[in-house]
Amino acid sequence: MDLLQKLKDPQVLKDLTEDAVVWATQHGLVMGLATPTPAAAVVHAPLALTPVPFPAGTFREAEAAAGAFAALVDAVAEDDAYLLATLRPTAAHDDFGVLAHLRSDYMLHTPTGSLLQVEINTIGVSFACLGGLTACLHGHLLGRLGAGAAERAALPPNDALDQLADALGAAAQAYGVEGAVVVMVVQPGERNLYDQQWAQTRLWERHGVRTLRRTLSELARDAELGADRRLRVGGAVAAVVYFRAGYVPEDYAGEAEWAARERVERSDAFKCPSVAYQLAGAKKVQQDLARPGQVERFLPDEAQAALVRRFFAGLWGLEDLADPDTAAAVGAALRDPGAFVLKPQREGGGHNLYGAELRARLERGGPGLGAYVLMQRILPPINRSVMVRGGEAVEADTLSELGIFSVLVRRGGEVLVSRGAGHLVRTKAAESDEGGVAAGYGVLDSPFLV
Amino acid sequence: MDLLQKLKDPQVLKDLTEDAVVWATQHGLVMGLATPTPAAAVVHAPLALTPVPFPAGTFREAEAAAGAFAALVDAVAEDDAYLLATLRPTAAHDDFGVLAHLRSDYMLHTPTGSLLQVEINTIGVSFACLGGLTACLHGHLLGRLGAGAAERAALPPNDALDQLADALGAAAQAYGVEGAVVVMVVQPGERNLYDQQWAQTRLWERHGVRTLRRTLSELARDAELGADRRLRVGGAVAAVVYFRAGYVPEDYAGEAEWAARERVERSDAFKCPSVAYQLAGAKKVQQDLARPGQVERFLPDEAQAALVRRFFAGLWGLEDLADPDTAAAVGAALRDPGAFVLKPQREGGGHNLYGAELRARLERGGPGLGAYVLMQRILPPINRSVMVRGGEAVEADTLSELGIFSVLVRRGGEVLVSRGAGHLVRTKAAESDEGGVAAGYGVLDSPFLV
After folding, report:
1. Does any domain span residue B418?
2. Which positions bind substrate (chains A, B) (predicted)?
3. CA–CA separation, B82 vs B72, rounded Å?
4. Is residue B218 part of a domain?
């Protein structure tokens, strides 16, 4: 079935767009309005109207690597000395519970046909819930287009929402205090709140665990750390503190917010993530792990290490420009800036440098350059997609990024849960170098395995 | 469990309000915004935060009477001569398919403890879908309040959404043309569109039947009646024409819209409702049926007739003010206007006269008075409710109306489906004499059987 061919009929396109908007709105695949009038108003999340073709074998490989990446991040987060040496802040080792919800993001690299890792996210990982719903939406829309069973089987099942809820539930159960809650640390005015609310609702339905939503400022005021290392928020004991904030400097308005984060860290609650896990996801660590022998240091299993390595793109730190490898990479980037990207250490997106900007920044040099890593630019295939935003459909040339979730729940040395946890495809216009779904550039999508 | 007692705690009230808004938004219990910016934006439907106490025995009685009321309306709609004599328009008898989706609305009458019928709706019956979802919402919220199994059992199951979809599916199947569709006739700019869209989505999921949404003006342009009496809309054959519009004069902008209605009526499609069914729901007919012997004429089964009669409130036509019964009722209304209501024949609400206005209209008299019926005013119990609109909770004295749905599918003389089809409770502020949920006065609610 050539899906896009069917959409050439304007009536089919109009009807399917309405189907998509209605289904998404009926099933909570929604976001807050930019200007909420009235409060509580929502609109469907930005969507691709049909799933994007994706090579099946490559998709399965990325799924199979989810556990190895979780093991790698876990081993790095456990190694205080390594984090200290690599990042130079204090990384307090966590004896207590760790809940990791990770997403490893990839793009297909056209010149080689391989899948290359863009980054691995260890904090505030979003779109497990809306991404899972998008798979259901696309199943519905394929049915409306008259797809048969074989074609619908090309949409892989996506249990990302249940997996996140079950990991939160497993951590809360392992914490072992009746009535203890999950504290979700959120940003004020979050528009992507239904992606978060679905985890709360599903956690309640499947595990009977309640969630409190608090900003870091509210935690600074209300969270108390007892001598028993229990964290109490408004009378409830926190079994899990789940960060959907706290990864950009703006989330820490002042000392009080930093102190609240420290109180969480020193408590015996499961943290998603701990500070060590958050640090293990830094691009600086990603760059260090790309050096020969580093992955093998953390993953003694050779096959596992090799599985992880095959997804690595070229990646160079810029602290020591005299280093021969670094100098060679910088030289190549100055000659051919289109084949590279300059990425800042900090999370949150929106600050990458490409092309002429990249070249200018490299030429300017200076000590600030060490805050960036230089990365091989991945050249993904260009697809044709219909993107639906605010009820309106727009067709465009697009490129897609595949995310593979994994969850890991560990108490001290005991790993309670470790598994792949669904997937996510985000698609954006090919001419847009930057931006996520929540920022208004991309749309939620699914892989149509070919 | 005294639900409202728990809500006296401001934190419990705040948390439960958020729970209600989130659950409703996740599950498509939503309406369009009054000023949709962007297009496709929605907000949760107005809601009661907790279900309203309702006597269990009375609720069961009303459920049990659903079939008898459907049989009554069906018999009336079949009797051209009766409709002609009662209403004086031409009532073309329909040989073909009839799909009835009825809702009989009741209120508890405090002086006698009995349930009295407010009206029976035969066209454009709304809130089967959002009402069914409200029952699920209240089940969820009771759980969040810590209700046990016994308390949750006090919320009767409500399959109103599936019943409507199944009735539409049964009619489409009986029509017997592969690929034939349901044409839903809608008002332009409908805010309550998700109540309608749920019927479409569920019909597709359960029966694989598609729905086209068209205004009467669009039908006037696009609907063609063939010599074979098939109605074709945009290339599709209409198995069912389902009116969610066409019951107020404003829906018929001109002759073209009246002609479109006639084309539908002359086609062999199942009509929900036929003109005869729509007429059978007129308040004038309701008033005529209240006269001695009239119900018995249409329902030969004595027990069935008695079952229906017990819900009748006092009801008097005003064409012949010299009639002794009428004169006595008008005299009583002038002395005690608070015990009566003056209702216009037309549907859609918003025009009833009460109190001083009622007395003034009766005193003014004139031939226009015949367009009204005088009705015993039902005096329902006053409850205390928390109503949630646009994310905000407001507590108020309220009164509630119970609706019992029924469906009937008939082809010629053969009744294919006839059954009760769920319920609806709407609650409004006690000081508001008028208005529905869609108009912004009432909220969706559920019965908590006591």
Report:
1. no
2. 103, 123-126, 190-192, 196, 244-247, 426, 437-438
3. 13
4. yes
B328 and B262 in a single domain? The answer is no
What DSSP state is assigned to residue A274? -
If one counts the domains in chain B, the total is 2
Tens digit of pLDDT for each residue in A129-174?
A: 999 999 999 999 999 888 888 888 999 999 999 999 999 999 999 9
pLDDT tens-digit map of A59-89? 888 888 898 888 888 888 888 888 877 765 4
| CA A389/CA A11 separation, integer angstroms | 18
Cα–chain center distance at B39: 28
The domain boundary, picked from A377, A402, A426, lies at: A377
Instruction: Look up A121 and say whether it is catalytic.
Output: yes
Q: Judging by beta carbons within 10 Å of its beta carbon (0-12, 13-18, 19+), is residue B263 exposed, middle or buried?
A: middle
DSSP lists the bridge partners of residue B445 as: B425
Pair (A164, A261) in one structural domain = yes
CA distance B127 to B46: 12
Asked which of A326, A347, A377 is the last residue of a domain, the reply is: A377
ipTM of the complex: 0.85
Q: Which of A445, A118, A85 is nearest to A314 (CA)?
A: A118
B196 and B264 co-located in one domain = yes
Which of these is catalytic: A202, A214, A261, A283? Answer: A283
CATH code for position A358:
3.30.1490.50
- Tell me which chain A residues have a C-beta less than 8 angstroms from the C-beta of B197: 22, 26
Who's near B161: CB < 8 A, 6+ residues apart?
A: B128, B129, B132, B133, B198, B199, B202, B422
Give B223 to chain A, closest Cα distance, Å: 16
Domain with B324, as residue range(s), is 314-377
- Answer whether residue A191 is part of any domain: yes
Residues B51 and B155: their CA atoms lie apart, in Å, by 8
